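> example.struct
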């Protein structure tokens, strides 16, 4: 006879709780790599737009299947990077700050997203003063905003966000051009946990992250270079690039449910899951 032994408590996985989210996305109808503003972009390489559309549709479907709401903004011709909705603004507690892009090639996306935000039924929508690339460089972790700088977002925008939302902003210095936006180097897993690639940050910023998040998931170079940290979590399910195999294992060990998706075509522009997703926080 086999005795049924009680499972040791430490072996039972942590129960992570998902909360329903509202996302904004932009279908890559005009997606292309026709200029190069980050090291991932090679104008000679060519993109398969049909494939990009299919991959994007699968990401949207993934969110819907997880029970999230997905709104879409109309893509505009001549704005091949508009698919990267994360850069379109920052929305916290029903209030939005619009984006102001670093590069001329993307500048017209600012007003396009601002117009959408102004009609989204939010309490307040502010026009940006300083250069900021939205949730590419601003990530909300519980009652904090982590803010990247070094390649795109001006540090002045960090103060602007703190003043506008009244939420403490922690400035982080990015040092590797492959990880030019904060959301390429750090993923928010829930209100108190992040995953990040330490080498993408300056020494001081690494120390800050270590102090704030001693239990953070540390990503390997192999997972970082497939933009594995460009992930979107609902507190339980972490939607991430399927090539980030090691990170998926680490997340599972922590009780999260990794959901891999392939956005290989969009990676040619230096973007993946999170870049395609702007969270609209009520
Ligand atoms: N090609 C785009 C750029 O360089 C990619 C943006 C990716 N977005 C992001 N949130 N990291 O601006």
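> example.seq
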């Amino acid at each position: 006879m086999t005795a049924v032994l009680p499972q040791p408590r430490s072996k039972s996985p942590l129960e992570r709780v998902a909360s329903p989210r509202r996302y904004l996305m932009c279908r890559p109808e005009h997606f292309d790599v026709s200029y190069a503003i980050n090291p991932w972009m090679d104008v000679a390489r060519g993109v398969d737009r049909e494939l990009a559309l299919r991959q994007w549709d699968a990401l949207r479907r993934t969110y819907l299947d997880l029970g999230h709401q997905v709104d879409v903004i109309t893509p505009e011709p001549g704005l091949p990077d508009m698919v990267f909705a994360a850069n379109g603004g920052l929305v916290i507690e029903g209030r939005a700050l619009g984006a102001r892009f670093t590069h001329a090639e993307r500048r017209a996306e600012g007003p396009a997203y601002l117009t959408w935000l102004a009609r989204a039924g939010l309490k307040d929508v502010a026009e940006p003063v300083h250069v900021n690339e939205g949730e590419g460089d601003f990530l909300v972790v519980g009652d904090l905003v982590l803010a990247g700088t070094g390649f795109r977002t001006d540090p002045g925008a960090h103060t602007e966000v703190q003043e506008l939302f009244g939420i403490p902003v922690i400035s982080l210095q990015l040092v590797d051009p492959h990880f030019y936006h904060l959301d390429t180097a750090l993923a928010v897993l829930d209100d108190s946990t992040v995953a990040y690639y330490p080498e993408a940050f300056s020494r001081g910023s690494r120390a800050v992250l270590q102090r704030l998040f001693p239990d953070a998931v540390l990503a390997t170079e192999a997972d970082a270079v497939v933009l594995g940290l460009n992930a979107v979590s609902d507190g339980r399910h972490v939607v991430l690039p399927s090539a980030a195999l090691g990170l998926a294992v680490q997340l599972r060990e922590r009780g999260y449910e990794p959901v891999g998706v392939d956005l290989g075509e969009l990676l040619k522009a230096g973007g993946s899951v999170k870049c395609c997703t702007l969270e609209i926080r009520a």
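> remarks
Residues 84 and 276 are 4 Å apart (CA to CA).
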